[in-house]
Amino acid sequence: QVQLVESGGGLVQAGGSLRLSCQASGRTFSSYYMGWFRQAPGKEREFVAAISWGGGSTYYTDSVKGRFTVSRDNAKNTVYLQMNSLKPEDTAVYSCAASSGTRWTVLRMREPNEYDYWGQGTQVTVSS
Hints:
This protein is mainly beta. It is 4% helix and 46% strand. It is built from 1 helix and 11 strands, in the order βββββββββαββ. It has one helix at 106-110, and strands at residues 4-7, 10-13, 18-24, 33-39, 46-51, 58-60, 68-73, 78-83, 92-99, 117-118, 122-127. Strands 2, 4, 5, 6, 9, 10 and 11 form a 7-stranded mixed beta sheet that branches. The protein has a 4-stranded antiparallel beta sheet with strand order 1-3-8-7, with no helix packed on it. A hairpin with a 6-residue loop joins strand 4 (33-39) and strand 5 (46-51).
């Protein structure tokens, strides 16, 4: 069992930055690859970024490439999402998720059903 708790959301002006953190419980954090998803009001959940078990591989959705960076610290059981050059369209509830999957593929990491555990989410609001 893994529990995930996000923090770091808030209100920021367009062009600003935020750093989200996702703290995981348990001693097997490194056995999960991690994803970040977001959901805006009235829209479906959207994949944002993913990071492999050791952090050596990352993948981003096109709309955040070059602006967001995902990283992890397995010693601290924490995954991060650094968000720069934020835009109003980035406004959403951001959630982290953990997958026990053993295959690192684009189709799998983008699919919410591939993730076993989810955090409660943290609100990010970007004003214009």
